[in-house]
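Q: Here's a chain of 152 amino acids. Please give me its 3D structure as C-alpha cells.
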Amino acid sequence: MSKIYMLRTVPAWRGLYTPLSFFGSALLLGPLSAASSSNIILDIGRKGRLFQDAAALVALSAIVLAILTTFLFTPGIGFFRVKKATLLELPAVKIYPYLFGRLLCLSAAVFCFFLYHKSGSSRYITLAFLTAGAAEIVGRYLFYAVYSRLGV
C-alpha cells in the first residue's frame, strides 16, 4: 500500500516517512485489535494473558517506531525532513498542534500498557487500541496535509 503513495510528483511522500508510517500503523493497530478482541471473540481463557502480553510488546515497539518516524522523517519538520521542493499545503507551524495531539495519544497508549501490566485487566488493552487508533487518525491527517504535487 505504501508503494502506491511513493510518487515522483509528490516530494513529501517520496521518502522513508511513507513506508515507515504505513508499516508502523499496521504493527501498532493489528496486534492491538487482535488482543483487545481476543477475549470477546476467542475463548482462550488463561492463555489470553500471554497473547495480550505479546501483542502489547509488538505495539510498544510500533509506538517507538511511530515516535522516531515523527521526529526524524515528518516532511517539513523532521530531522531528516524532505527538502521543500514546493510549498506544503499545511505550513510547519500549523502541524505542531497535530503532532502534539498524536504524541499525546501515543503517550496515553503507553500509559494504558502500564496500567495493563499492573492490573492484568484486558480493558486497558482496549483503551490502548482506542488511543493508538486516535493517534493514527491524526497521523493520516498529517500525511495528507503535506500533500503538494509538482508539475501537472
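Q: Can you summarize the key feature?
A: The radius of gyration is 17 Å.
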